Amino acid sequence: MTTVFQESALCDLSPADRDLFQAFGAGPIRTPPFDHVHHAFETHVARRPHVTAVEHLGESLTYAELDARAGLLAELLIRSGVCPGENVGLFLTRSISMVVGILAVLKAGAAYVPQDARGTPEAQLRHVVRATRIDVVLTTTADSVALPRHLAALVTIDTLPELSTFCRTTTADTDIAAVIFTGAGGVPVSHANLCNVLLTAPGSLGIAPGTRVSQLLNIGCDLAMWEVLGTLANGGTLLLRGDDPGKTASEVDVVIATPGVLTSLDPDACQRVHTVAVAGERCPQALADAWSHRVAFHNTYGHNETTIVNTVQRYEPRTGQLTIGRPVPNTTVYLLDDDMLPCPIGAVGEMWVGGSGVTAGYVGDLDLTARRYHPDPFLGGDHLMFRTRDLGRWTADGQLEHHGRAGDQVEVLGYRFELDAVTAALEHAADCDRATTLVHDGRLVGFISPGTATPEVARRAVSQRLPHYCVPTLIVPVDALPTTERGKVDRRALLSRLDGRRSSVLRT
Questions:
Q1: 339-358 pLDDT, tens per residue?
Q2: Which residues does 306 contact at the CB level (< 8 Å), separation at least 6?
Q3: What is this structure's pTM?
């Protein structure tokens, strides 16, 4: 059973395309078992209190122990004046205290606002506090020294009193679970949207009691919610990484990562892993092929504004067709032209996302919200759809292909084209595992990895697939593409490398 679109919004399509636009664009209807993500966690506390919930650097907590600590901290927050519907900062680094803090804020009826205490500039932390009106920040003793002075009232999670029993204040449940900041701004993410993606297949990733899941990503990243809350809401065991992400990945069953982070892991060293999900940026074909011969490999697509992921493909290496899949339950995807009219099936259009994953907008930025969120004519009522600024195309069998960013178009030598198309062509070179493309001083530059990859082979791969103006002037082999704190390709670092290269040439 799927959602039925409004007929009036489909009138410009042929009858055949109307049926396919509906069939391809609407995910199945499913009812998540919970509407608040911490309630799902508490069910596992009651059923399996002695199962290990979280591990980090030799320390661990069972579900009962984690629930007790989170409950105590929630009570402390309530008694310190935190009210349902308010925002609480979670400014720290990866630790068991981080997990305690997330659950405590949710139990108090508030929303947590995560930031990496060590990696986030002071100006950004102060902006986050102002934008979300934070009065209380949860941190740890060690992380508190890295925070700016007079930021907010600090509560150190690791100095909680040891109490076996305490009187718990009952608070009302509220809608918003977290506020996640991206380059565009802060996005409030609801409990209902989280439950929709984390507690239904395929987003649940088969996680169940006994399943070990890695936590590799930055706390401020929306994908960290998938790792942490997706594990605990389904009864699994969360393994927080230390300094060596490869060691952590080798000890788990499920890995959720960006392609940049997954590239740093060795599939042969991760024999226990049976499920992998990648999100956050374009996945190279070679990366999918390297993992999918042995594990269930999920290539996903989504934005913070649409709650983590909204399409998923279970990649089958025998077909060789890597796409971003189909809409997850209770969500929709529309391919629209420049006039916001439906594109015929098979045509490239801009992706708009509707349904249960769409958030309500950006904190304190009504203008940007109005530009990116529009009333949804296909679902009608008060539904919103989100403009992704990504291009896509439906295949004949209803798989969604990603065709780059609508805003990632560049002009070189008077020709306009998509950088993603050049990157994909570079990755077709036999010795290239991963690539990226950018424009520097008016020239098209490609970076390929590993460092042993041959520029001439990569150049030939592009020239065989794309017009001459898409062939990079310079192709630079690197051992690995640098990544940001959130696991995506760091283009600034690559530009700096090019500037250093030019300076070296000038000195010579």
A1: 999 999 999 999 999 999 99
A2: 331, 353, 357, 358, 359, 386, 388
A3: 0.86
